[in-house]
UniProtKB/TrEMBL annotation, chain A:
Source organism: Komagataella phaffii (strain GS115 / ATCC 20864) (Yeast)
One cellular component (GO) term of this entry: cytosol
GO biological process: protein urmylation; tRNA wobble position uridine thiolation
Protein name: Cytoplasmic tRNA 2-thiolation protein 2
Pathway involvement of the protein, from the record: tRNA modification; 5-methoxycarbonylmethyl-2-thiouridine-tRNA biosynthesis
Cell compartment(s), UniProt: Cytoplasm
GO molecular function, one term: tRNA binding
TrEMBL record, chain B:
Cited CDD domains: CTU1-like
Organism of derivation: Komagataella phaffii (strain GS115 / ATCC 20864)
One Gene Ontology cellular component annotation held by this UniProt entry: peroxisome
Physiological role: Plays a central role in 2-thiolation of mcm(5)S(2)U at tRNA wobble positions of tRNA(Lys), tRNA(Glu) and tRNA(Gln). Directly binds tRNAs and probably acts by catalyzing adenylation of tRNAs, an intermediate required for 2-thiolation. It is unclear whether it acts as a sulfurtransferase that transfers sulfur from thiocarboxylated URM1 onto the uridine of tRNAs at wobble position. Prior mcm(5) tRNA modification by the elongator complex is required for 2-thiolation. May also be involved in protein urmylation.
Sample GO molecular function, one term: ATP binding
EC number: 2.7.7.-
Pathway: tRNA modification; 5-methoxycarbonylmethyl-2-thiouridine-tRNA biosynthesis
Protein name: Cytoplasmic tRNA 2-thiolation protein 1
Occurrences of domain Cytoplasmic tRNA 2-thiolation protein 1 C-terminal (ranges): 308-338
Length: 457, 362
């Protein structure tokens, strides 16, 4: 039986008279999945959903075996400071608290909370740092807290600092991308905001930013020595993602983003888990209201800042359109969210056919050859120029130096060929000039190597 | 007139740009637009190996823009690239007064314009029901479900009558993208991987179907028909699409407005959908008698061999009773009740059949 957000919200008002159906003792304060809950029973119910998705031994308290202390692992929580990740933080904190109480100070894992501070990307005055401090204060962290939990705030510009080269990416008419190197002095000056400002529209910006943040989280995970990343996405959010990734031509990521997946980065395995996969957005809201977690939420300020930023181009993004679509059909087709997540979890991670080819922008492993695919269905050849008048026009055109578009730049300085995934290719192909992008440290040698060959024309 | 390089076509840099290409937003001259439009379809045909020399191909012609442009393009490409095809127009008369009468007149003109033979098969003669009669009986709500099932079989039967094994249809990239979204939104696991297939063939059916416009934008088809002054019938079918599909269509249109590439982006995604390997599925096939039937995972029933015939109408079908017959039987039983019990029961009966049909895999 699939439960839906509307099941949860429809009778919110009239719940006070009803008795909780779980404990049959307390008065209920919320209604979800056709059941009345009191506060304690509801919190337990939602926490149970998380436990079901984190059943493995590695999250449980380990006792020394034959006198040898077992190493408990580090688990990273990607905290966006939105409602669902705050709920997941609360759940995990309480889980660890319970473990330390029942196992005399032992806990199943070390929790490392990582926040990518997107407030630095806008001119707005909201502060993620302050909110994180409030959160820590509220949970008594830093004050002899029995739970071992640490926080790390990451500046998105770290993404550029991690690399020591800024390249210029160009895409030609046949969808081949090239990169030319710049001196490393440039690297320190370029900011993520400047990178994002190069994108042709809000949707591309959103897409590229999402990729930057994801890569940053993966890199941070390795730096702080974690083996697992937890994301707080609710079922509702995951349904949005299935459609949004499909629309952006990133279907190959769906399998990875919905189910437990293994991300392999620089030879290290990172386990990705979505512990709130079975929790509805409306339940996140109930949970959050019960514990007043909304005071730590920065998403509303972030959205306002994003909109301020985009006063030139007010058109919605792919994510925003997808969200409003689900909102608009929820009433009439209430089971769509769970249906979409269910089919999403049945999708496989794509097996790479082109070994070790990764997208220069988003770093995903290429599973197909997008250049060839696009070239076949998007022709960029002109019809023959035959009449004398037209031939004359063509001459005038080339004389007036209008040929300063990508193609002619390429002729002068082709750079070296790089691989790009389908989605990044379509996101960036409308850019008239070169796209400046930091080149990851790992591929530096390879890039430098290529630069020395391709320059002589 | 003086040539202004600033308004020149993005591709040839010599002729004046007259349009913005919907797929890429490039400003193009007419000639370059024709060139890219036609070449892309040719590329699609060649890379999918759609045709072989000497093949007889039926064009599912409705008189609408998609199939009219399809007939024009196939004629053009067949001559230009020497495909060696024998092209025939195949039309279905659903029996929708007003809509179909005018569109059939268009197809008849197309027959002369393109010098192609035309074959018309009607629902009435095949099923003894016209679409108008079906709607009167079953209600307008499920009209598209009915029509889809009946048209599919009617095209097959028409082609079979002509001795043709390949029907091409005017389904375009927008239709493809919409189907991909629909399969996700409906959670249709059985169709997800195949939703973007360019060639489809139901098992047991000798008729192959293909979609040369798989990557062609609907808006570009409209523009092409407009600039080439093609004669087509532009009214939409009187019976609007099923409401839920309508929501997906609206979503797609808003997405296209902010990101024109999203239509092929969705198709690209659709081509990359890969389901996880199936867990050992319960095998319910019984081998003791040839008459035993298999119950598929989706609840549909099938005989265990290809090339079976519908027990009711004798038409090729993998199911014991073909979908058209299941649907028509429901109609017959509800029509029988109409005079005595009024319309409501009839509609309920038809709605039940529709529900039953939705669980079958087409
Ligand atoms: Zn209770
Ligand atoms: Zn990419
Ligand atoms: Zn041109
Ligand atoms: Zn039959």
């Amino acid at each position: 039986m699939a439960f839906t957000d509307s099941d949860a919200t429809s009778q919110r008002i009239s719940t006070s008279q009803n008795i909780c159906q779980r404990c049959k003792n307390m008065g209920s304060i919320c209604f979800s999945r056709k059941e009345y809950f009191c506060k304690d029973c509801f919190l337990r119910f939602i926490r149970g959903k998380q436990r079901k998705l984190m059943m493995e031994d590695k999250f449980k308290v380990q006792y020394p075996q034959k006198g040898v202390e077992s190493v408990s692992q580090n688990v990273m929580l990607a905290l966006s400071m939105g409602s669902s990740s705050l709920v997941l933080f609360d759940i995990l904190f309480n889980l660890l608290l319970e473990q330390t109480k029942t196992h005399r100070g032992r806990q199943g894992f070390h929790l490392k909370v990582v926040i990518v501070d997107e407030s630095t990307l806008s001119d707005s005055d909201y502060s993620v740092r302050d909110k994180v401090e409030e959160l820590k204060e509220a949970y008594g962290i830093d004050h002899n807290c029995p739970v071992d939990v640490s926080f790390k705030i990451v500046d998105p510009n770290q993404f550029i600092l991690d690399s020591d080269q800024v390249g210029s990416i160009l895409i030609d008419n046949d969808f081949q991308s090239y990169i030319t190197g710049n001196n490393s002095e440039d690297t320190k000056k370029l900011t993520i905001t400047e990178i994002l400002d190069q994108t042709p529209n809000r949707s591309s910006r959103e897409d590229i930013l999402e990729m930057v943040i994801y890569q940053l989280l993966i890199r941070t995970c390795l730096v702080i020595n974690c083996q697992t990343i937890l994301f707080g996405h609710s079922m509702t959010k995951l349904a949005d993602q299935v459609i949004s990734l499909t629309v952006r031509g990133r279907a190959s990521l769906i399998g990875k983003r919905l189910t437990d997946a293994v991300e392999i980065h620089n030879g290290s395995e990172i386990h990705i888990i979505h512990p709130l996969r079975d929790v509805l957005k409306s339940e996140v809201v109930h949970y959050s209201e019960m514990l007043q977690l909304e005071r730590f939420n920065v998403m509303n300020q972030k959205k306002a800042a994003d909109l301020l930023k985009s006063k030139v181009n007010k058109s919605m993004t792919v994510n925003e359109l997808t969200r409003s679509y689900f909102d608009s059909i929820e009433g009439d087709y209430s089971e769509v969210v769970s249906t979409v997540v269910k089919i999403g979890t049945k999708l496989d991670q794509l097996r790479s056919t082109e070994h070790n080819k990764r997208c220069i922008v988003c770093d995903i492993q290429l599973s197909s050859d997008p250049k060839h695919w696009l070239e076949n269905i998007t022709v960029n050849e002109p019809a023959p120029v035959v009449t004398e008048a037209d031939i004359n026009n063509l001459r005038i055109y080339s004389e007036t130096c209008l040929l300063e578009d990508d193609a002619s730049k390429l002729v002068m300085n082709p750079g070296s060929e790089v691989d790009m995934c389908y989605a990044c290719l379509t996101s960036l192909q409308d850019i008239r000039s070169a796209f400046r992008w930091p080149v990851a440290r790992a591929s530096k040698e390879q890039i430098l190597d290529e630069f020395t060959i391709g320059d002589d024309i | 007139m003086a040539f202004n390089p600033k308004t020149a076509c993005h591709l040839c840099h010599s002729r004046k740009a007259v349009m913005k290409r919907p797929k890429t937003l490039q400003k193009l001259c007419k000639e370059c637009f024709y060139n890219v439009f036609e070449t892309e379809i040719h590329n699609t045909i060649i890379s999918a190996n759609l045709f072989h020399k000497g093949e007889r191909v039926a064009i599912g012609a409705s008189g609408g823009k998609d199939s009219t442009v399809l007939a024009h393009i196939l004629k053009t490409l067949n001559e230009r690239y020497d495909y060696g095809l024998e092209l025939v127009l195949l039309s279905i008369d659903e029996g929708i007064v007003g809509y179909r009468d005018d569109s059939l007149a268009t197809v008849k003109r197309n027959k002369e314009q393109y010098q192609m033979p035309l074959e018309i098969v009607s629902y009435k003669e095949l099923y003894s029901w016209s679409m108008d009669e079906i709607v009167a009986c079953a209600g307008i709500r499920s009209s598209c479900t009915y029509c889809g099932v009946l048209r599919r079989q009617a095209l097959d039967r028409g082609a079979a009558r002509l001795g043709i094994a390949h029907v091409v249809t005017g389904h375009n990239a927008d239709d493809m993208a919409e189907t991909v979204l629909m399969n996700l939104l409906r959670g249709d696991v059985n169709r997800l991987e195949s939703s973007t297939n360019i060639i489809t063939q139901s098992s047991g059916s000798p008729i192959k179907r293909s979609k040369p416009f798989k990557y062609t934008y609907e808006k570009e088809i409209v523009l092409y028909a407009h600039y080439k002054k093609l004669d087509y019938f532009s009214t939409e079918c009187t019976y609007a699409p099923e409401a839920f599909r309508g929501t997906a269509r609206t979503l797609l249109k808003s997405l296209e407005a902010i990101k024109p590439s999203c239509i092929i982006d969705i198709i690209q995604s659709g081509e990359n959908f890969k389901l996880k390997p199936k867990k050992q599925r319960k095998n319910v096939v019984k081998r003791n008698t040839a008459q035993e039937i298999e119950v598929r995972g989706d609840g549909s029933v099938s005989l265990n061999k290809d090339g079976n015939k519908c027990e009711s109408c004798g038409y090729l079908s993998t199911n014991k009773i073909c979908k058209a017959c299941i649907l028509l039987k429901g109609l017959e039983s509800s029509r029988a009740k109409v005079p005595i019990e009024g319309g409501n029961i009839a509609i309920d009966g038809a709605a039940q059949v529709t529900k039953k049909l939705e669980t079958l895999s087409f």
